[in-house]
Design the sequence.
């Protein structure tokens, strides 16, 4: 489990694909690897990945399977790119964002960017199948960041980024047309799916 509060930016050190599996190596800040062990979970751009080796700190390798490559933006990263990272939450940690599983739902595309003195507002499009899970003042994770949605119209929504978020994440260099990883709020999804499944039975009882 993650909180959606991105802990910083890591740099892609190497990318190698073999038989549909990517070995992704990222260089984490040295103050972020304390206690990191093989088998630990780290969210990279919001994707929950497993540490597979700890012999070359601060370079940390992950194996990314084809399913993840197909539905996320990790298949497009290159050496030198920056990515968001968050280590998994521990019992007792402050949940400053919302509960994030690290299981990316799909891709969101930036359709508009508006900049003013205090913040940047971006507009995103997602697949229409996700429209049922997004609403004004609801949550979603974008490249691992827990963010509040506004101006929701069908499968489109906007997000405002404060300077602190822009400084500590990769959103400061995102541009129109860029794909970002999108995870719907798990609580919202389970509630909507449960109601849809039970509604026909409830109507029959009435």
Sequence:
């Amino acid at each position: 489990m993650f909180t959606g509060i991105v802990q910083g930016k890591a740099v892609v050190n190497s990318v190698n694909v073999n038989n549909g599996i990517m070995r992704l190596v990222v260089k984490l800040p040295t103050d972020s690897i304390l206690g990191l062990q093989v088998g630990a979970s780290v969210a990279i751009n919001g994707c929950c990945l497993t540490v597979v080796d700890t012999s070359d700190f601060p370079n940390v390798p992950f194996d990314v399977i084809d399913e993840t490559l197909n539905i996320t933006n990790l298949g497009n990263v290159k050496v030198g790119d920056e990515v968001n990272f968050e280590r998994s939450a521990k019992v007792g940690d402050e949940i400053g964002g919302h509960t994030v599983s690290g299981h990316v739902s799909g891709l969101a595309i930036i359709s508009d960017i508006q900049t003013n003195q205090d913040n940047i507002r971006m507009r995103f499009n997602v697949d229409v199948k996700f429209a049922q899970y997004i609403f004004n003042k609801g949550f979603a994770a974008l490249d691992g960041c827990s963010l509040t949605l506004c101006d929701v119209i069908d499968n489109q929504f906007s997000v405002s980024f404060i300077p602190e978020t822009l400084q500590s994440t990769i959103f400061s260099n995102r541009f129109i047309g860029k794909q970002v990883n999108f995870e719907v709020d798990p609580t919202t999804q389970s509630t909507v799916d449960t109601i849809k499944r039970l509604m026909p039975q409830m109507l029959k009882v009435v």
Notes: The mean pLDDT is 92. The two ends are 39 Å apart (CA to CA). The chain has three helices and 13 strands. Residues 33 and 58 are 7 Å apart (CA to CA).
